């Protein structure tokens, strides 16, 4: 039998993933999300995120402070931040790394809004692909004569309503983030 909750859950995961990606997109303001998910090679060849290797704090609107749990990882963290190519500058002392977030221009804000809009479109496509899979499942079950025509129509309408709701959530997230960036 068809389980619409499975597809709804997949769509929710896509929206949550978008929201998580958007949290790292901050223009001109220092937040731990800017660097917390940067992958670092530490302890030989292990790939870990900065948040697993250090605490990340905010000193002021333009400065983050990273304090590694193990000082032997400082150089790896510093290299990883530079390799992420986020336009951040770092400076190290004996037990911490300061990360300076540059002030942004209007051009940078517009560029970031375009990137966020493109990201939103990609997530809408992912939602539509999940809808396509759900529709194919319903039509397949109907074709096997395990579902009436009325039941098929009802389920297809429900799938579309669920899809529309998730796409609206994506649009709201993109608009809110874009407005936040343009207001800074």
Q: What is the averaged pLDDT score?
A: 88
Q: What is the H-and-E element order?
A: HEEHEEHEEHH
Largest sheet features: 4 strands, antiparallel
CATH superfamily membership of the largest domain, which one?
Answer: Ribosome-recycling factor
Number of strands: 6
For this structure, the CATH topology of the largest domain is Topoisomerase I, Chain A, domain 4
Distance between the termini: 50 Å
Q: What is the C-level CATH assignment of the largest domain?
A: Mainly Alpha
Beta-strand content bin? 15-25%
Question: How would you sum up this structure, described in words?
Answer:
The chain is α+β, with helices and mostly antiparallel strands and 184 residues long. It has 2 domains: 4-22 and 105-183, Ribosome-recycling factor (Topoisomerase I, Chain A, domain 4); 28-100, Gyrase A, domain 2. The chain has helices spanning 4-23, 50-53, 74-83, 106-143, 149-183, and strands spanning 39-42, 46-49, 54-60, 63-68, 89-92, 97-100. The strands form 2 sheets. It has a 4-stranded antiparallel β-sheet with strand order 3-4-6-5. A hairpin with a 3-residue loop joins strand 1 and strand 2 (46-49). Helix 4 runs antiparallel to helix 5. The radius of gyration is 22 Å and the shape is elongated.
